[in-house]
């Protein structure tokens, strides 16, 4: 494992602008032809199944339908597949459509350290390019392994939160690196692509109190599209570097100041993907443990109506983003958007405690959010930041103190969600398959579901030109009923 160090935004010239900068180190990792460990290969398959599951669940949602309609206007041969439909399309547009489907419900994987990451968002761009260029299953596995390694390494060592930039800046770099591995590009070309991607995808963090616009919700999908274009530019000889003489608060400067990013050494296997975790519930990754804790505590509370107040002790980050520390009144508003409710741990805890389950649609339905007893309980819940929960080992942790009208206080806590690798019930292959079967039910024919599972579990054996088989087809009636309107692209 190598660590970047002694790097500042000033006094770096010559060789330091290349061989010593973080972008170059990442490019070297991407170009390393090291073998993929068995556990990494197995987790890549799990992630492909998971992405297909959440894509099936989101296929009829408006913004997903919009992205799909845009992409369908860009037919291309050989091209890449758009989730659920037949035909081939320009890979960057297929990546946009498929990325939107993966990201929309906040149901794909995550990782949290110095800052959060959703590395599963790298996969659509890698699959699209692999399909378009006729690569093999083993090539795709290697590319995904690199993208995860870079994304998680950056989350661990370089806080996008502290540098005021959205985590998608890390995502763009990760996709570029993964594509470099996928296409077996030389280090200088990958380095140039990383530079292009970083410039194109570095967005300021959104204020917690600002609404989530459609473009913001699908920034990861757009990031994948831009990263593909960045790699294409680099392959054509357009060079770019992360300049050390940029602004102190720019993403370039943040890259140069990333003294603690630990990357694999040459010949060291890429295993970071096994540290990522799935989301069992369609909600903010910071709220997964809170939902599981509410489901567990429900057994100890005879009558939810007897609750006087609830205090959820969380990390400082969770308190500010999904808790009362945000100061966002919409987190208590029954008319708030689904995306706001999914980032209100008070709402997540209240509904899970009352219902004893969490559903990606029913738990957010307007009639569910407007239930008088839910609103009453919801208003009784607050969060408090606890420094001990901010440790690297338990950044997702939550402790609940439930005070009843009788004065009795019921206390319970979870360090991580049940599905987390260190949780009570870590996801295994059978759990990913079950999630896919549940979310694809009524959307993808059962025979087509099984065909997809048979193909993806044999990923290593897929020959050149056969990666299009990774696309499960959706009932055309469902696609035709999805809401969308005409735009520029036809």
TrEMBL record:
Residues annotated as domain MmgE/PrpD C-terminal: 281-460
InterPro entries noted in UniProt: MmgE/PrpD_sf, MmgE/PrpD_sf_1, MmgE/PrpD_sf_2, MmgE_PrpD, MmgE_PrpD_C, MmgE_PrpD_N
Annotated ranges, domain MmgE/PrpD N-terminal: 35-257
GO molecular function: lyase activity
Gene3D superfamilies assigned: 2-methylcitrate dehydratase PrpD (1.10.4100.10)
Superkingdom field: Bacteria
A Pfam family matched in the record: MmgE_PrpD_N
Protein name: 2-methylcitrate dehydratase 2
Organism: Mycolicibacterium smegmatis (strain MKD8)
């Amino acid at each position: 494992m190598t660590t970047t160090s002694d790097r500042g935004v000033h006094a770096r010239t010559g060789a330091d602008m290349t061989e010593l900068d973080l972008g170059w180190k990442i490019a070297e990792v991407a170009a390393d032809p090291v073998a993929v460990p068995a556990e990494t290969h197995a987790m890549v398959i799990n992630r492909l199944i998971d992405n297909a599951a959440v894509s099936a669940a989101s296929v009829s949602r408006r913004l997903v339908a919009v992205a799909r309609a845009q992409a369908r206007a860009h037919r291309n041969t050989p091209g890449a597949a758009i989730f659920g439909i037949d035909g081939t399309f320009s890979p960057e547009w297929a990546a946009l459509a498929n990325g939107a489907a993966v990201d929309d419900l906040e149901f794909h994987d995550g990782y949290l350290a110095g800052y959060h990451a959703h590395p599963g968002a790298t996969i659509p761009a890698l699959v699209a390019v692999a399909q378009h260029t006729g690569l093999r299953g083993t090539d795709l596995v290697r590319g995904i392994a690199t993208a995860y390694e870079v994304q998680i390494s950056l989350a661990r060592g370089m806080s996008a939160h502290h540098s005021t930039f959205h985590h998608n800046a890390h995502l763009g770099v990760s996709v570029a690196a993964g594509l470099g591995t996928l296409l077996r590009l030389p280090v200088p070309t990958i380095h140039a692509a990383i530079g292009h991607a970083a410039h194109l995808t570095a967005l300021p963090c959104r204020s917690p109190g600002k609404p989530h616009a459609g473009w913001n919700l699908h920034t990861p999908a757009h990031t994948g599209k831009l990263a593909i274009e960045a790699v294409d530019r680099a392959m054509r000889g357009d060079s770019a570097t992360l300049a050390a003489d940029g602004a102190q608060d720019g993403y370039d400067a943040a890259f140069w100041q990333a003294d603690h990013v630990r990357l694999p050494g040459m010949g060291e296997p890429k295993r970071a993907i096994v540290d990522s975790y799935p989301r069992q519930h369609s909600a903010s990754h910071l709220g997964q443990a809170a939902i599981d804790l509410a489901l567990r505590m429900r057994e100890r509370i005879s009558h939810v109506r007897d609750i006087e107040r609830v205090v959820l002790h969380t990390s400082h980050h969770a308190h500010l983003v999904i808790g009362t520390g945000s100061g966002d009144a919409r987190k208590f508003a029954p008319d708030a958007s689904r995306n706001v409710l999914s980032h209100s741990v008070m709402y997540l805890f209240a509904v899970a405690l009352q219902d004893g389950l969490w559903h990606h649609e029913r738990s957010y339905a307007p009639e569910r959010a407007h239930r008088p007893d839910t609103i009453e309980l919801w208003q009784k819940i607050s969060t408090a930041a606890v420094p001990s929960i901010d440790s690297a080992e338990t950044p997702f942790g939550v402790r609940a103190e439930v005070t009843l009208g009788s004065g009795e206080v019921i206390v319970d806590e979870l360090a991580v969600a049940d599905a987390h690798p260190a949780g009570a019930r870590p996801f295994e292959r059978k759990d990913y398959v079950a999630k896919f079967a549940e979310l694809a039910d009524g959307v993808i024919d059962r025979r087509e579901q099984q065909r997809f599972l048979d193909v993806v579990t044999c990923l290593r054996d897929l020959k050149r030109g056969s990666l299009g088989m990774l696309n499960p087809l959706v009932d055309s009636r469902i696609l035709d009923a999805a809401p969308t309107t005409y735009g520029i692209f036809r």
